[in-house]
Specification:
It is a single chain. With 251 residues, the chain is an alpha+beta fold. It is built from 5 helices and 13 strands. A 6-stranded mixed β-barrel has the order 1-3-2-6-5-4. Strands 10-7-9-12 form a 4-stranded mixed β-sheet, with no helix packed on it. It has a 3-stranded antiparallel β-sheet with strand order 8-13-11, with no helix packed on it. The protein is elongated and about 60 Å long. The termini are far apart.
Length: 251
């Protein structure tokens, strides 16, 4: 691989206003840190970082950060993009030791057209799209290629079935499904129930709500009328008012 060098400057000031001034100069803020070194605020060119992200190795690209003549071997650990236009706003760099393994994530690429899709009418479902691996910085693969051409309908490929490149250890749960061929879902169209036209000479059926209202109205007619104001209830009458009236007479 060709050697990549990105120029960087130390930042002595931090804050939103400082970052705005940096961006007007065509730079973005960032932080350089490592396992044994303190975090160092830096500024870099977003164009150079963008070209690294667009390369084959992407964010796993190993490159040199030239900080005032002192080169640090780094990897792009995190970056922040502007949500609408996708411009780089911030980048973090992690200093690595070439003789010590690191943990990174790599993308999975599916290769081939499954038998279950080509012949059996299934649909390929790509479930797990990246793997977490451990290896030396110089052994990071660009991607993990998975051949799915022999995958039949109802069959699947799990992480544990993948063959990792030499000197690379897969850390992702081996039981996770990478891809499987499934039966396509039939489109269920719920047809509205057709309203039956009333037969000639037959009275149309009233809606349930109207029936309920009728029953309540009829029940209300059957209830005894309340005594008018000033009129005493009869002695044999049941109910709360009658009982209270009897008690008052006993007193």
């Amino acid at each position: 691989m060709p050697e990549i060098v990105v120029a960087a400057e130390k930042r002595t000031e931090t804050g939103k206003n400082v970052n705005r001034r940096l961006r007007t100069r065509g730079l973005i803020p960032g932080v350089l840190y490592g396992a044994k070194s303190e975090a160092t605020p830096v500024s870099v060119s977003p164009k150079e970082i963008g070209s690294i992200l667009r390369s084959a190795t992407g964010e796993n690209t190993l490159f040199d950060l030239d900080l005032g003549g002192s080169r640090r071997k780094v990897i792009l650990k995190e970056f922040q993009l502007e949500p609408i236009k996708g411009r780089l706003l911030h980048a973090d760099f992690y200093e690595v030791a070439l003789d010590k393994a690191i943990e990174v994530k790599v993308h999975i690429e599916l290769q081939g057209l499954p038998v279950g899709v080509k012949v059996q009418g299934g649909v390929l479902d790509f479930v797990t799209r990246e793997l977490e691996i451990e290896c030396l910085p110089t052994d990071i693969p660009e991607k993990i290629v998975v051949d799915v051409s022999e995958l039949e309908l109802g069959k699947l490929v799990r992480v544990g079935e993948l063959k990792a490149p030499d000197k690379v250890k897969i850390l992702t749960d081996p039981g996770l499904v990478v891809a499987h061929v499934v039966t396509p879902r039939a489109e269920e169209v719920a047809a509205p129930a057709a309203e039956a036209a009333p037969v000639e000479g037959e009275a149309p059926t009233e809606p349930e709500v109207i029936k309920k209202g009728k029953a309540e109205a009829e029940g209300a007619e059957e209830k005894p009328e309340k005594p008018e104001r000033g009129e005493k209830p009869e002695r044999g009458e049941k109910g709360e008012k009658g009982e209270k009236g009897e008690k008052r007479e006993k007193k």
